[in-house]
Design goal:
This protein is mainly alpha-helical and about 525 residues long. Helix content is about 55%, strand content about 5%. It contains 21 helices and eight strands. The chain has helices at about 50-55, 75-90, 100-120, 140-165, 180-205, 215-220, 225-235, 240-255, 260-280, 285-300, 300-310, 315-325, 335-350, 380-385, 395, 400-410, 410-435, 440-450, 455-460, 465-470, 475-485; strands at about 1-5, 5-10, 15, 30, 35-40, 70, 175, 490-495. Strand 1 and strand 2 form a beta hairpin.
Length: about 525
């Protein structure tokens, strides 16, 4: 037995026990023929297997059996880079800012890629500064990066499947429902004042709601109505000054409340996508890009800025704002979604349980207030089942990401199937909704779904319902009213392949039945 680098190397078995590293990055210990460690390669973290394999094979008669290869985070990061480049090259001509894959790439890069490089550069992994907790290891990070890339690949397969299927029907007219401005005005006339009143009353203390009150969740949802109404009004009437003033005031309040940062970011995604579609541009303008950079710089510290503002600590607000633009003051308590996903995979393995989709059933009981049903199933009850004393996800409110949720439900099969079906479904919705005139209900509904996609990828599939229906009830009211016969007409739009498909002209009866489509009734 030979002591090496904080552990012991057994030359006969090729096993190193008690091996420790002070930072992320791998070391390949190559044993010599006499059992001593002949080389440590590479001198810096990470290496391709092809560089190490000749040294391993030449190190002794047993070759591959007599080595230790610690998981290399760099190898997985390089593979991740190759996947990202390949995806962009293959899909760029099919994509736009509002395409589901664009949102997925934004989530993937921000949550997995950037965090992975931060860890490789020496950032502290999750629980690294917390006593009595199990620190996320490099092996877990490497595994998570690999399966995150697999999920991305299969999401792309789903997108390609949807594009191929849509292309076969691109020469046929599409029936869509015209957006009725009177319905929008009626819903917003009721919901906007009510939402603003509840929102401002809660902020000023005029409405006090307790945690055990049945009205707590309902009033919190009503407070979100203003942004749902404003997105509908701007989609219908454009960026008029009165709506922009209300949007600016509401988002300013939201940004400084110290929590729920998504309430700031998601509407901005909606407005950016709507603006680009109205101007018939596929990608953001320079102004939008500059605004996105500013939001990205402020976002990590937004909670601290809001908390300081709420407490009246003006000096702390100014300090946090300055630090947001200081490259030398990196915010370590950022979004470690990769770490949470990585640890979640391991916790799922140790739980030895597959939920088989039962995590999605909690949506059925969501409308019932917990004050009326104390033991009702929660949206995150599965975290209770997999949490341990050293990784208390259920207490800390951590997430698995939708990929981790798919693994929790269906194992490795879920990482293939769920992204594939999600990519297909979302891309099909996108293509059908955004290849016709602007004043269509389906386009408005799609933009609502588009703006919450990042939240779905982060929190799981239930967010697809929670953030579109529960948190945006004005949209649901608009959708229901448009479905009532006689309130909003259906028209046949030109085929998506037609150069004039985005124009407001449409094919109306009796001409539509003469073209490929449903038979005349």
């Amino acid at each position: 037995m030979l002591a090496v680098s904080g552990g012991e190397y057994n030359g006969s078995t090729g096993i190193v026990s008690g091996f420790r590293r002070s930072a992320f990055g791998s070391r390949l210990l190559v044993p010599a023929a006499d059992g001593r460690v002949a080389a440590t390669w590479p001198p810096v973290p990470g290496v391709y297997f092809t560089f190490a394999l000749p040294l391993i094979c030449a190190s002794g008669p047993l070759g591959l059996r007599s080595y230790l290869l610690v998981d290399s985070i760099l190898l997985n990061l390089l593979f991740d880079a190759v996947v990202l480049i390949a995806v962009v090259v293959i899909m760029f001509r099919r994509m736009s800012f509002w395409h589901p894959l664009a949102g997925y790439l934004l989530f993937h890069v921000f949550s997995y890629t950037m965090r992975g490089w931060d860890l490789y550069a020496g950032a502290t992994p999750m629980y690294g500064n917390t006593a009595n907790f199990e620190v996320v290891t490099e092996a877990e990070i490497s595994r998570a990066l690999l399966w995150a890339d697999v999920a991305l690949i299969f999401f792309v397969f789903g997108c390609l499947w949807a594009h191929a299927r849509f292309g076969r029907t691109a020469q046929r007219p599409v029936q869509r429902r015209v957006l009725n401005p009177r319905i929008i005005a009626a819903v917003c006339t009721v919901c906007l004042p009510a939402g603003l009143y509840v929102f401002l009353s809660i902020k000023s203390g005029g409405i006090a709601i307790g945690e055990d009150s049945a009205a707590t969740n309902y009033l919190s949802v009503v407070a979100m109505w203003p942004i749902g109404c404003l997105t509908a009004l701007i989609f219908t009437y454009g960026f008029r000054p009165q709506w922009l003033i209300l949007v600016a005031l509401y988002l300013s309040f939201v940004a400084l409340q110290g929590y729920h940062r998504f309430m700031l970011v998601l509407p901005l995604l909606f407005f950016a996508a709507y603006y680009l579609q109205a101007r018939r541009r596929r990608w953001p303008t320079l102004t939008i890009l500059i605004g996105a950079v500013l939001v990205a710089l402020l976002f990590p510290r937004l909670k601290m800025i809001g908390a300081a503002f709420q407490q009246g600590e003006t000096a702390e607000v100014v300090t946090q704002l300055k630090d947001s633009f200081d490259r030398n003051k990196k915010f370590e308590e950022g979004e470690n979604f990769l770490d949470q996903f990585a640890a979640g995979l391991t916790m799922t393995d140790f739980a030895e349980k597959k939920f088989l989709g039962s995590t999605y059933l909690a949506i059925i009981t969501l409308p019932v207030p917990r004050a009326w049903w104390a033991n009702k199933p929660g949206l995150a009850d599965h975290l209770v089942d997999i949490s341990t004393s050293t990784r208390q996800y259920n207490v800390e409110g951590r997430i698995l990401t939708y990929v981790g949720e798919a693994y929790l439900n269906y194992g490795y099969a879920g990482i293939f199937i769920v992204p594939l079906l999600l990519g297909f479904g979302l891309t099909t919705f996108c293509l059908r909704a955004t290849t016709g005139p602007m004043d269509r209900l389906s386009r408005y509904l799609y933009l609502i779904f588009f703006m919450i996609l990042v939240q779905v990828f982060r929190d799981g599939m239930l967010s697809l319902f929670v953030f579109t229906i529960v948190h945006n009830l004005p949209m649901l009211f608009i959708w229901i009213l448009h479905s009532i016969p006689g309130l909003a007409p259906k028209v046949w739009d030109l085929p998506p392949a037609d150069p004039m498909a985005l124009e407001h002209g449409n094919i109306t009866p009796p001409f539509a039945p003469q073209l490929p489509g449903p038979p005349r009734r």
